[in-house]
Amino acid sequence: MFLNYLISQIDKSYSPKGFSNSEAINIQYDILKNLLRKSKNTKFGIDHNFNKIDNYEKYKLNVPIRDYEDFKIYINYVREGKEDITWPGRPLYFAKTSGTTSGTKFIPITKESLPNHINSAKHLLYNYYLKKKKIKPFLGKVMFLSGSPDLEEKNQIKIGRLSGIVNHHKPLLLKKKSLPNKKTNQIQNWEKKIDQIAEETIGRDLRIIGGIPPWIQMFFDIIIEKTGKKINQIFPNLDLICHGGVNFEPYKKNLFNSIGKEIDTLETFPASEGFFAYQNDIDSEDLLLQINSGIFYEFVEVNELKNKDPRRISIKDVKLDTNYALIISSNAGLWSYNIGDTIKFINLNPFKIRVSGRTKQFISAFGEHVIVEDVEISLKITCQKFREVEITEYTVGPKIIDKRSKSHHEWLIEFKTPPKNMSEFEKELDKNMQKRNIYYNDLINDKVISRLKVNQAKKKSFINFMKSIGKLGGQNKVPRISNDNSIIEKIKKIN
Q1: Total-model pTM
Q2: Which of 102, 105, 253, 487 lies 20 to 30 A from 153 at CA?
């Protein structure tokens, strides 16, 4: 079709069905070459001999894999206002986010990297149109539940949440169709904001909604509370949910029950570091990897990550159904950066993936990105105050409850000596968790979830559980945290 051809000529990052295997490999090596050329005179480029690197093998020898903590020394130079550190000049923005492997992160977004975030979303919607062959979903209102667009500025760099930054760069046509209005979007308190969004949206012709699934469910719950009607009675033309950030499956049934019918859904794989992939076919859950979008990808088999010098490969050598840690170098000035996500390739021609998890244990059922360190330190600090407490074993997982604001983190703890006042212990533990993790703090304060709950496990509960699965003793451990509540429920059932 001519329109398809025209768009692909204007935007070289776009390919409706994806680039072929050979095209993708060549594009990726060209991207690496161009990234190195543009950055050879930056501090990072000088430190890592960019002027001497002319192939991927030499790149691997000179540029080690880093996570945020390892990379932070360069980020701090940029935050101080210094130029030409990891990319020429200064970034336009810092996307401020809570990391799953560290505390608050500041991820650079440059003039060159910004189109990746904007265009990928446009490609998602355009591909949906190509598949469905109908214009109806695009004739009404579109709403993406996002953070505030308000930004602070320091050393000539604007700082804010990624979703708020992207709000400033919506295409003109989309801005005219978007809900909510700017004033509503600027409300900082999430509970007040979502309530105002509901008030503003009722009676409008909403046809597409996007966001993190628990946020969407919260919005639906408020609409139902205000009207006493199913969502499809309020928004009869609602055709599409665009989602990402957390596993959609636990929310799917409740979302469709709230709507009153099943509708189309499309998954995305965005992050502050880049918009990496999206579902380009409504009939397949696989995500099309963004091959030509200013990002060079590397992959490390997850079991290799523990090695001092893990084997790294380019897209040329990836295999199907292998769990890889995703490593990126990009025109945002990130270099062999471990984003913390793991993926599996489902197709190699074109390259299509599914997100398989995180490189470390985590809880992100509601978008909180809680890691083991968060729970361990929070519990340690709490027990320092409640000195009588002795703990034998524990595990933590999300408890998802249909009714809004009742979902919470469940802590199953086997005490040798329990606290004298369990209610106060819970409050203190939750307070310390909020101090450790800004996203968890936001979710509590905005009443997306309620305060954590501690359940006491019976004596030898964890031993009996490990015995039941044949993993008692040796190096086997009960997972400290999990992204679902299955382990907790199994322990309860056994005992």
Answers
A1: 0.77
A2: 102
